[in-house]
Amino acid sequence: TGVPVICIDGPTASGKGTVAAKVAQALGYHLLDSGSIYRATGLAARQAGLAIGAEHAEAIADLARTMALRFDAGRVLLAGVDVSDAIRTEQAGMDASLVSALPQVRTAVVALQLGFRTLPGLVADGRDMGTVIFPAAPLKVYLTASAACRAERRRQQLLARGINAKIADLRADLEARDARDMNRSVAPLKSAQDALLLDNSELTIEQAVAQVLAWWQQRQ
Ligand code: C5P
């Protein structure tokens, strides 16, 4: 298509969201936070009173296809309501992981994701950006960090919002979510064959961003 795409995939709380946003900002590219689509779908299912499971897969996929989801200046709007905070809770993350394991839901949100690929370019973060959605992307990064690091970062993020969570609980939650994301039958979380691995356990956000930008430079 001639539109450059940088994919940043990896497990929960690996720093993908922050790194992707900063890389997009540095390059003046669009940003696709694909996880927020699954989070919003989970929220829409709850609001509709649908239990999140295979028995409601078609109904939830319909919701995903028809929900009025808008991204506006860093905020996420569902049917005109700002749900940016509501979709960021731990519960919303688990719900997202459950809806995202339903093949019908994944199919329903493909077109929405492809629509983000517009000039001058796109940075896409998620689990399957490089493996499924943008397989021809010229740069794919698989961003990881140790489970201990990721749990600690999540704890800090929550603390910043005034929520005091136990590190052991957070780690158990994120490991459960990763296990489901890696073991599902459709679009499981895994590194694309041609992805570059970046472990940022010992890196600052700025260092991780600089590495991705350096790889992008080399591609030009
Ligand atoms: O990245 P984030 O934590 O917001 O994603 C929430 C959940 O959505 C993930 O745990 C995963 O199950 C799902 N997801 C996915 N594919 C993506 C992005 C997110 O399955 N591309």
From TrEMBL:
Annotated ATP binding sites: G10, P11, T12, A13, S14, G15, K16, G17, T18
Domain Cytidylate kinase: 6-215
Protein's name according to its UniProt entry: Multifunctional fusion protein
Subunit annotation: Monomer.
Domain of life: Bacteria
Family: Belongs to the cytidylate kinase family. Type 1 subfamily. Belongs to the EPSP synthase family.
Function: Catalyzes the transfer of the enolpyruvyl moiety of phosphoenolpyruvate (PEP) to the 5-hydroxyl of shikimate-3-phosphate (S3P) to produce enolpyruvyl shikimate-3-phosphate and inorganic phosphate.
Subcellular location: Cytoplasm
Part of the full-length chain shown: 449 to 668 of 676
